[in-house]
Amino acid sequence: MQKVVTLKDMCVITRTAPMAAEVHGGRAKCLQRLVRLDFPVPKTVALSFDAVRRIAAGAPPDAAAILREFPTLPLLSVRPSSLNPDWGGPGAMLNIGMNAAKHEELCATIGEELATRLYMSFVQSYAIHVARLDADEFDASAHPSIDNLNAMLSVYEAEMDAPFPQEAETQLAEVLRSMARAWDGTSARLLRQAKGAPADAGLGLVVQEMALGIGPGESGYGVIQFIDAGTGQRRVTGRYKAQAISGEHLRDQDGTLYLTRDPRGASLEERCPDLFAQLVAFGETCRQRLREEMEVKFVVHDCEIMVLDAIRVQRSSRAAVRVAVDLAEDGIIPREEAIMRVEPDALSELLHRQVDASTERDVITKGIAASPGAAAGRLVFSAYEAQASAARNEPCVLVRRETTPEDIRGMHAAEAVVTVRGGITSHAAVIGRGLGLPCVVGADDLVIDERKRQFKGPRGRIFTEGDIVTVDGTTGQILNGQVRMVEAALDEAFQTLLSWADALRDIGIRANADTPADAQSARNFMAQGIGLCRTEHMFFESDRVNLMHEMIFSDTPEGRAAVLDRLLPLQRADFTEVFRIMEGLPVCIRLFDPPLHEFLPSGKPGMRDLADVLDLPLSQVVERIEQLEEYNPMLGMRGVRLGVTVPEIYEMQARAIFEATIAASQTGAPVVPEIMIPLVSAMREVELVQGRIDAVAAAVRAETGADFDYRLGVMVETPRAALRAADIAQHAAFLSFGTNDLTQMTYGLSRDDAGRFMSDYVRLGVYEEDPFHRLDLDGVGELLRIGAERGRQGRPDVTLAICGEHGGDRSAIDFCRTNGFDYVSCSPFRVPVARLSAAQLFL
Ligand code: PEP
Ligand code: MG
């Protein structure tokens, strides 16, 4: 038998009672603060987490002792008090103590109808939430009459084989027990853990004397808040209803008043200006003294206000930023605290359009949330159709088994992208994030039938080209139809908060940006430069991909050089534009990286098109494509291996970079380009490439008579490069760790295929998280530490950075700060999140 939970385990809330949010929960602590502020709060008893835990385990609560704290035996309410209100909890129970005698007494004071309404609403919630009877049997909308009340009591008795409990003591004990147990239920547990609650999160309970908003003079019940919960702007909102039972849900059109003057109807401000002024004063006191925007529940009884409760206003991410900045600008909290109050990931919600939280979702399926934001459009199944759709000004959603460079133009044309295969670093995911395009990958419940232009989802649901779907890249859901959205908002408060963060942080934040459009996004989000420009993405434009094909099909170095001569001005123009946009900020350009094979079509129709364009027999095209095929292209002829064996490509790129440097420096800020060599595993590779690039620089200087500087660096993305970093740094001004490939090669885990089993691996606890998503600090991290340390041994002033997809992740930023890295580089849309995370980590 468990020991009784006595009043010793509880606490009457007074100014001096020993109370803490960690012991009694946030609501109880907040009520004590209100008492200390001299707010008129009804008498309240708080039960600690420990007391509630014991009640849930079977210890009987000493309800009689609690009731003795309320000598006049009023009606009572019980409300949950967890550490964080966002973690949910059981709903409030009101009107405890209601019974036949109380009903009779209230009939005499407030009238039969209201008294009966109170009793019926208590019987109904007790039956459903405490006795766990079927809600259908207890109709909340039944008219309050003695007959209906008796019918309800009879149903209760028939179902429970016992009359409705009449003793307040029994009622209270049962309510406490049921609320304590509800917190322990599996679904409540899972729900709050999904919101970040620890497994052992506790629940406190507060038992409060109810003040009825019913009586003589102005009496009523209301809820007031002092900001707009959507935007964070300061304005009074809320509802008030005269002659209302406190705690009732206040809806439009049932006699509620607006609080402030409102063209839509009467307001409390007009009817009772003094009461309204008092409420506004309460709000201001909360703001100044509790340093928060609070929602206040109040009861008016004969023109006297009682404050039942105040909780932090639940708010959108946009409002959270505005409130933090406003409080700091008004000197109520320091700037550092404003920075700490905003959850960095919430910022990414502000950068993209989102599905409206209140909208109904008809979920077709769920994949991996690869790029945040939401967009809707007609389904298309090929890049060609996506472009055709965009040409007709019809927004479309591109669905592919997986994307390849051939799909780039289609991705540009689409509003959102879905792939059946792939993980967080797959092609679609990387491009989607770079473009700020909502993207869901690894939606492996979908079966695509390209011939019929449709996909089949779970439960046999079929969707055909032209059907409208919404892609929610923030949650990974694909939704049927066009759902309501809220627009992105980069308002002044957002910019202010980030400028405060920038003044504090101690690590650089650059962006991964491949094209002039990306570079512009990087500037808009105030990146301190470009940390990775994947130049191959510049070859996917339609005018270039054909030239790439010609180059790949050239048999001789001379033939290749002739095609590269035609690519040169295009690359030069891109680089000049990127340098111009970045206005002297560092730009790190990675030389060509992917296997050439990626540029070639895989199916017969594409090969036939290619034969047409190149004016070659189909057989020759097929043969060349077969020659270039590799068993394991990610570990094959790519990166510096191409640079060493087909040097013309890197030479053309180096020339384009140098000529663009001269051009951009003539009209704008001086440019010192950074040139980065990918997939290095041996020092000799760097030496060879360096020799050729130096020669190109000398030739350009001689031809133009212009001088320029440049920095040559190495991308460390093979384990060997990390181990040999001391050697390699002899030839590298900077080392930038490509954690995508480094993760792939450290684990021996394919970036493109791991999605198939990743969720099983995470579920079974083999990996704590997808290592392509969250940097593996133990294994890959050790290689990074070794690489950084040895790199510094080889060259003490070497610049250190990471530029994989992990770059914007909080734990990776923390790791980089701790290990003395100079900057992280991430997709432009992640830059604001990284700026805020870095400042929080500094604090
Ligand atoms: C990397 O490998 O971490 C990287 C940034 O390069 P990519 O993703 O282009 O292979
Ligand atoms: Mg790489």
UniProtKB/TrEMBL annotation:
Its EC number is 2.7.9.1. GO terms for molecular function: ATP binding; kinase activity; metal ion binding; pyruvate, phosphate dikinase activity. Its cofactor is Mg(2+). Mg(2+) binds at residues 717, 741. Residues 394-476 form the PEP-utilising enzyme mobile domain. InterPro entries: ATP_grasp_subdomain_1, PEP-util_enz_mobile_dom, PEP_util_C, Phosphohistidine_dom_sf, Pyruvate_phosphate_dikinase, Pyrv/PenolPyrv_kinase-like_dom, Pyrv_kinase-like_dom_sf. Catalyzes the reversible phosphorylation of pyruvate and phosphate. This is Pyruvate, phosphate dikinase. It comes from Salibaculum griseiflavum. The lineage of its organism: Bacteria, Pseudomonadati, Pseudomonadota, Alphaproteobacteria, Rhodobacterales.
